[in-house]
Design a protein that fits this description.
Layout: E1 7-8, E2 14-15, E3 28-29, E4 35-42, E5 45-52, E6 63-64
């Protein structure tokens, strides 16, 4: 069974990707990540985006800290 993370963007907004989400819900936590999560505001709504910390090879698992 895969681990699904929830993300608290603010005290009011939480992303629970099981109900609605995309393939990023399968990203894994890592002590040596290749991505970084950031929250930006789009049209007054907090939105989580991921930035690559380095070049990521085709087929490589996406990880974040």
């Amino acid at each position: 069974m895969a681990t699904i993370y929830t993300f608290a963007l603010t005290a009011r907004y939480v992303i629970y990707p099981v109900i609605r989400g995309n393939v990023s819900k399968y990203m894994s936590h890592s002590c040596d990540p290749n991505c970084k999560a950031r929250v930006i505001w789009v049209g007054g709504i907090p939105t989580m985006i991921f930035f690559a910390l380095r070049d990521i090879n085709n087929g490589e698992e996406l990880t974040f800290s």
